[in-house]
Amino acid sequence: MEKLEQTARQIRRHVIQMTYDAGSGHPGGSLSETDILTALYFYKMRYDPKNPEWPDRDRFVLSKGHGAPAFYAVLAEAGFFGLDELKNLRKINHLLQGHPSNETPGVEISSGSLGQGLSVANGIALAGKLDKKTYHVYVLLGDGELDEGQVWEAAMTAGHYKLDNITAIIDRNGIQQTGKTEKTKSLEPLAEKWKAFGWEVSEIDGHDIKEIMDALDEKTTGKPHVIIANTVKGKGVSFMENDHEWHGRAPNKEEYEKAMRELA
Ligand SMILES: Cc1ncc(C[n+]2csc(CCOP(=O)(O)OP(=O)(O)O)c2C)c(N)n1
């Protein structure tokens, strides 16, 4: 557990370093999803970084594609590519673009246009059933992303096909691009909505590694599983926490140094 917490801290440092180096990017939503990604990649998922196309690998879809910095940091720490690549975030002709591209080792689908990931995850999960594969499909959605109608179409589809090989995780940080989700388009009662679409629902503290691990270990039969992970946007850096200003802006030198001191 301690090791996972240390890894998450390291991922947060990478996120600050990467967005500072790039001079752009999305630190807020990267810091809120960090513990979830850490538990997925360093506790739960089966994969082989030397063989990213291994047919039996578990699949991960980052539907909230702007959360790419934390995702890339996790993939680098897991060995899909060198840590050196993190220096080149958002640079033209380099591996790590602003939003995930499936040309990058370890990235299953290109994403960034919100609302599409669950539909793709459904397809991968259905294919797994047809091919009698035992892999599991994980998909991470933003809460603001749930404003997209396609998410609910996909939620209905997964319920209909009883896709119990899919786990959706909602990064419920309560904030989207320009303010609070409940002010932009209210989502509550969120758990009841997913239940009504035929999903098993868990609600957890999305920064408590043990709670994340336990929720990921939960098995559902005949139902897809959604984990509503309550998180803090900007988690770990005091002046970024709960402030939508840090949705899509890089730290300046002074802010970078302060953030790195806090994450030391
Ligand atoms: C279809 C689409 N519309 C708008 C955007 C611009 N956009 C990028 S991130 C974002 C807010 C997303 O909020 P949320 O899903 O809560 O992300 P998080 O807070 O976890 O970063 C928006 C509107 C987009 N990427 N795709």
Account of the 3D structure:
The chain is α/β, with parallel strands linked by helices. It has a single domain (2-262), classed as Rossmann fold. Helix content is 40%, strand content 11%. The chain is built from 9 helices and 5 strands, in the order H-H-E-H-H-E-H-E-H-H-E-H-E-H. Strands 1-2-3-5-4 form a 5-stranded parallel beta sheet, sandwiched between helices. Strand 2, helix 5 and strand 3 (166-172) form a beta-alpha-beta unit. Helix 1 (2-22) packs across helix 3, helix 1 (2-22) packs antiparallel against helix 9 (253-262) and helix 2 runs parallel beside helix 3. The longest helix is centred in the N-terminal third of the chain and has 21 residues, at 2-22. It is globular. The two termini are 19 Å apart. The mean pLDDT is 98. Residues 28-29, 32, 64, 66-67, 112-115, 142-145, 171, 173, 175-177, 233, 247 line the site of thiamine diphosphate.
Keywords:
264 residues; alpha/beta; Rossmann fold; 5-stranded parallel sheet; 5 strands; binds thiamine diphosphate
Structural class, please?
alpha/beta
Largest sheet: 5 strands, parallel
What is the share of helical residues?
40-55%
Low-confidence stretches: none
Return the CATH class. Answer: Alpha Beta
Give the end-to-end Cα distance, rounded to a whole number of Å: 19 Å
| Individual helix count | 9
What is the average per-residue confidence, as pLDDT, rounded to a whole number? 98
What sort of overall outline do the alpha carbons produce when their principal axes are compared? globular
Quaternary class: single chain
- Kindly provide the radius of gyration, computed on alpha-carbon positions and rounded to a whole number of angstroms: 17 Å
CATH fold assignment: Rossmann fold
Number of domains: 1
Order of helices and strands: HHEHHEHEHHEHEH
Strand order of the largest sheet: 1-2-3-5-4
Which ligands, by name, code or SMILES, are bound? thiamine diphosphate
- The CATH architecture comes to 3-Layer(aba) Sandwich
Share of β-strand residues: 5-15%
Number of DSSP-assigned strands: 5
CATH superfamily: Thiamin diphosphate (ThDP)-binding fold, Pyr/PP domains
